[in-house]
TrEMBL record:
It comes from the Bacteria. InterPro entries: BrxB (IPR014858). This is DUF1788 domain-containing protein.
């Protein structure tokens, strides 16, 4: 990953390796600011953020996310606000819960061995994946409705001051980052949302914004989220 992926500060060591501890210390400092919690200074923009990281550091980053959530849950804010509740949405678990909610999970599992048949030269398209795409992205009663309802329930109980979304790499290609965030636009508004993304979220005035999963899959355009590394920490 190039150092340009980390604007505003340097999470790369002199040898070019990624310093996850330093990276997540900055993320913690951003999230522990009252302006982040209360979503001020956004100019009317959606409080969506992306925290990208090298995909090969997935296991280490999972631990960093655990630590980040634990630290935030015990951190009081400078303006006197209490420590926040964190709603963690793991997308693989959420897809399974969604299918279970529709009473089709066992059927889908039974169908998988027979439905993994190619339907094009694209290895990301086969009969089983198309089935999941159609179920997840249905016009009604889709995954995004399910996630929004889950958020509303948690928020109503005081359990969603900040939303973490993880596992986007585990559900590709039937759930895609830009599609997910587009569908949650206007539905998760009462809390800042952070999606942890294994790959690169690049933003530039020349080429716009794009999400490139694993730094290998073709980039998908998405411009409504801020890279959390672009958010300043006010000392």
């Amino acid at each position: 990953m190039q150092s340009s992926s980390f604007p505003g500060y340097d999470a790369l060591l002199s040898d070019g390796s990624y310093d996850a501890a330093k990276d997540f210390e900055h993320v913690f400092e951003v999230m522990s600011q009252p302006s982040f919690l209360h979503m001020t200074g956004l100019g009317g923009e959606q409080p969506f953020y992306i925290c990208d990281y090298p995909a090969e550091r997935e296991l280490e980053v999972r631990g960093c996310i655990d630590t980040l959530a634990a630290r935030l849950r015990t951190t009081k804010y400078a303006d006197g606000s209490p420590a926040p509740s964190i709603l963690r949405i793991d997308l693989f678990d959420s897809v399974c819960d969604f299918l279970r909610h529709r009473d089709v999970l066992e059927r889908v599992i039974d169908l998988e061995p027979r439905r993994h048949t190619p339907i094009s030269s694209d290895p990301m398209r086969d009969g089983f994946l198309e089935l999941l795409v159609n179920m997840v992205n249905a016009t009604r009663n889709n995954l995004y409705d399910f996630l929004a309802e889950h958020y509303d329930e948690a928020f109503g109980k005081g359990g969603a001051d900040i939303v973490f979304i993880t596992g986007i790499g585990a559900v590709y290609p039937y759930v895609r980052g830009h599609t997910l965030l587009n569908n949650l636009q206007g539905r998760i508004e009462g809390s800042p949302l952070v999606m942890f993304f294994p790959g690169t979220y690049a933003q530039s005035s020349a080429s716009g914004s794009s999400m490139r999963l694993y730094d290998r899959i073709e980039a998908e355009n998405y411009y409504r989220a801020k890279n959390i590394r672009d958010v300043s920490v006010i000392s």
